[in-house]
Write a sequence for this structure.
């Protein structure tokens, strides 16, 4: 099957996500990654869909899948479900906003490929002792501020800090180098002996076998162990497992962790520990892709069901289709459509006797969806 | 809910936190309030904010969530930090904190100098490893895999008492009664429906009563209230398990019934039924076994009529009745040792423990023979007038010699009528 995999967002996190999804798909024999959208059986958009994808979808009726970060959910709150078949919400900062398209989306842990390229295996360049990337955006540099005093105490160490905040430079000792490395996290990780931070900084630390301390948007996480690494992974190493935003960050514990790591640079091979979990994430993505591609080819009316993201209300003598979560009116339903939907909602056998065309239209509009979508 | 014993609830913390589990039932959470520290001074809702307060002080959580993380960490043996650790581990499994500003507790540090010092700077001297344990535990699940099984070994099952319960009964009776007799071995056996009877100078009725009752019940326990005739000696039948005779100082119905409940607690049974010697179940309405299964009710009101002048007629105008049918607590399910509590004196009270789940046993009907003849009524009237020194009941005139109520035929009472009456009572 031909997959058109494209990164449609310029942000660094989407670029990293694209790279990792490329690695995942390219290792699947059944998939062929192609460069032309119109020749594809399925479009995978890392970021929101583009006009090219919309045009392709309308002309070729192919399956379109999106990968978006949960932290961006407010930007993509409304979705034209006729143009996107499925959305994977990648859990970076899993903020508590409900996606109103539950039947056509799911949350997924960040897909990541820990495989080291040959050229990366003998990487001894260590320009810095510590790379700090707390990766905060809701409480910008909050965690960084909380540990700055601790970092200033470590005058014997060269510390590379990722921040766009110019004023921090005035608060930091000379041994601390502050730059915006958010577009080049991996190379900064490679150049350091250890990593303090969250999100991709930690994932690259695992990939490159560097010791690390988790702290970020959800406060202090400490040094993970094989017992809790999967939970940390699920929360994208944002700080305390299950912690709250801008959570507590005791600097004495961070200092103790740094000293412990510097005294013992042995690292745990978390990449191996996480391999089983990575396989599960990969299999889930591939399973859903295969299902959507198959579904776009075959429409079995008997396997359809009413999309429970919606509800039908009567008012002003008409019937209206509403989103259950937003309470927005999607559209007015005509009597024919209503008759078809009633059949599906009540699961009467006569649903299959309606004209194929009517049902196909409702399926295109995602008012009817395939039974085993989840 | 968990809170420290030094704490006092300034607001209705239990209700406030409990409500959150209805209001946010779809959101797995634990609810917390806040606590202020005070000495002996009065703390109320209005002045609460003048005191130093912190979140927590009380926590309410669902049992299933506590079980999921294996409860409080049992490796913590010293005071403090256990609650922080518990909350952190609930957070780790996605059970989130819900804070209620209005749930206010006052923590009293009376004569506790150490507590007063500590309240200002908690955890100041706590070592790092303990801080990690309290606030950043490695795993959500504490304790070992055998957690929660410490009390799985059953040493004594009150619902299936062993044969040794006879020995326990003898010990109990030796201290309580002037005479007792184990008539039938009951230890280790079960008697689904157990009759509890008290008697006092009923030699003319006791034989017939026990004979009739033995067809309706699996076992009978008899307490004789110090009869001066030979009631105690005459009390014999094949269903009688044991009988006891107490020393009578006065007529204390409450004490007698509670003693019967004490005695019943030595016998394995499902349902206990109270009948006095001058009462009997109507043979048409005696399906006690119908109530054995199910647990929709634990205490039953049983329809009850006072036979008047002849065994075929009853007082149709008895006070507090519906067309002559009274409803008396007479039957309870055995949900453990129970007692009757009364603030209405020793003579008139609910005749069985009024347990939380009550219902009407409309398939039963008790016939009361105590008022059958005018002589009986006169004797009862004089008895109660003499005994009721506390004024437990305002009047006994309804069964005095002059009382001439309308009568109705017992035979006219139908199952449908009893059912209708019970519905009428419930709807009231």
């Amino acid at each position: 099957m031909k997959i058109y995999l494209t990164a449609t967002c310029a942000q660094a996190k989407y670029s990293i996500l694209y790279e990792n999804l490329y690695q995942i798909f390219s290792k699947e024999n059944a998939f062929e990654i192609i460069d032309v959208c119109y020749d594809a059986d399925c479009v995978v958009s890392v970021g929101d869909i583009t006009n090219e994808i919309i045009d392709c979808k309308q002309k070729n009726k192919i399956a379109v899948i999106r990968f978006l970060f949960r932290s961006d959910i407010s930007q993509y709150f409304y979705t034209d479900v006729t143009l996107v078949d499925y959305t994977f919400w990648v859990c970076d900062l899993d903020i508590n906003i409900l996606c109103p398209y539950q039947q056509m989306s799911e949350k997924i842990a960040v897909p990541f490929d820990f495989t080291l390229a040959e050229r990366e295996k003998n990487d001894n360049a260590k320009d810095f002792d510590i790379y700090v990337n707390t990766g905060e955006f809701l409480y910008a540099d909050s965690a960084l501020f909380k540990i700055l005093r601790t970092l200033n105490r470590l005058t014997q160490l060269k510390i590379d800090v990722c921040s766009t905040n110019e004023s921090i430079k005035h608060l930091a000792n000379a041994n601390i180098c502050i730059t915006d490395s958010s577009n080049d996290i991996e190379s900064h990780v490679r150049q350091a002996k250890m990593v303090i931070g969250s999100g991709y900084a930690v994932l690259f630390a695992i990939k490159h076998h560097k010791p690390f301390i988790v702290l970020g948007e959800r406060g202090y996480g400490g040094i993970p162990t094989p017992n809790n690494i999967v939970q940390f992974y699920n929360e994208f190493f944002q700080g305390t497992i299950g912690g709250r935003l801008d959570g507590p960050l005791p600097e004495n514990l961070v200092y103790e962790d740094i000293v412990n790591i510097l005294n013992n640079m042995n690292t745990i091979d978390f990449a191996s520990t996480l391999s089983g979990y990575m396989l599960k994430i990969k299999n889930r993505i591939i399973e859903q892709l295969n299902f959507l591609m198959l579904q776009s080819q075959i429409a079995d009316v008997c396997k359809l069901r009413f999309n429970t993201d919606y509800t039908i209300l009567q008012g002003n003598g008409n019937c209206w289709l509403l989103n259950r979560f937003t309470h927005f009116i999607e559209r007015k339903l005509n009597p024919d459509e209503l008759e078809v939907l009633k059949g599906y909602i009540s699961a009467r056998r006569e649903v299959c006797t309606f004209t194929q065309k009517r049902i196909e239209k409702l399926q295109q509009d995602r008012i009817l969806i395939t039974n085993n979508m989840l | 809910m968990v809170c420290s014993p030094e704490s006092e609830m300034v607001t209705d913390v239990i209700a406030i936190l409990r409500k959150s589990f209805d209001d946010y039932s779809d959101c797995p959470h634990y609810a917390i309030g806040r606590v202020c520290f005070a000495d002996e001074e009065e703390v109320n809702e209005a002045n609460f904010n003048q005191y130093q307060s912190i979140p927590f002080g009380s926590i309410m959580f669902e049992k299933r969530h506590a079980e999921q993380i294996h409860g409080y960490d049992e490796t913590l043996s010293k005071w403090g930090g256990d609650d922080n650790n518990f909350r952190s581990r609930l957070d780790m499994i996605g059970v989130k904190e819900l804070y209620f500003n209005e749930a206010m507790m006052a923590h009293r540090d009376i004569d506790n100098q150490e507590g007063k010092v500590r309240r200002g700077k908690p955890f100041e001297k706590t070592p790092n490893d303990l801080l990690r344990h309290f606030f950043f535990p490695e795993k959500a699940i504490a304790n070992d895999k055998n957690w929660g099984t410490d009390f799985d070994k059953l040493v004594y099952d009150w619902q299936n008492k062993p044969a040794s319960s006879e020995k326990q009964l003898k010990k109990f009776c030796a201290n309580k009664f002037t005479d007792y007799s184990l008539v039938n071995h009951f230890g280790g056996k079960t008697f689904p429906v157990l009759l509890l009877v008290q008697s006092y100078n009923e030699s003319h009725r006791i034989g017939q009563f026990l004979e009739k009752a033995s067809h309706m019940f699996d076992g009978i326990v008899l307490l004789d209230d110090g009869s001066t005739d030979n009631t105690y000696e005459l009390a014999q039948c094949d269903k009688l398990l044991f009988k006891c005779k107490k020393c009578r100082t006065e007529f204390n119905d409450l004490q007698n019934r509670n003693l019967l409940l004490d005695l019943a607690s030595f016998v394995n049974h499902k349902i206990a039924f109270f009948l006095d010697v001058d009462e009997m179940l109507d043979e048409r309405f005696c399906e006690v076994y119908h109530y054995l299964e199910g647990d929709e009710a634990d205490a039953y009101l049983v329809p009850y009529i006072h036979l008047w002048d002849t065994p075929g007629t009853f007082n149709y105008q008895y006070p507090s009745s519906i067309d002559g049918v009274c409803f008396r607590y007479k039957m309870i399910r055995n949900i453990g040792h129970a007692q009757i509590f009364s603030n209405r004196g020793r003579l008139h009270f609910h005749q069985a423990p009024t347990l939380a789940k009550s219902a009407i046993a409309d398939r039963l009907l008790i016939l009361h023979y105590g008022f059958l003849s005018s002589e009986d009524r006169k004797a009862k009237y004089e008895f109660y007038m003499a005994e009721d020194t506390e004024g437990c009941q305002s009047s006994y005139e309804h069964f005095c010699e002059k009382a001439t109520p309308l009568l109705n035929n017992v035979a006219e009472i139908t199952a449908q009528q009893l059912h209708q009456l019970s519905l009428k009572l419930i709807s009231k």
Observations:
- The mean pLDDT of chain B is 91.
- The CA atoms of residues 15 and 103 of chain B lie 9 Å apart.
- The interface with chain A takes residues 88, 90-94, 96-97, 128, 131-132, 135-136, 138-140 of chain B (CB under 8 Å).
- Residues 374-387 of chain B form the longest helix (14 residues).
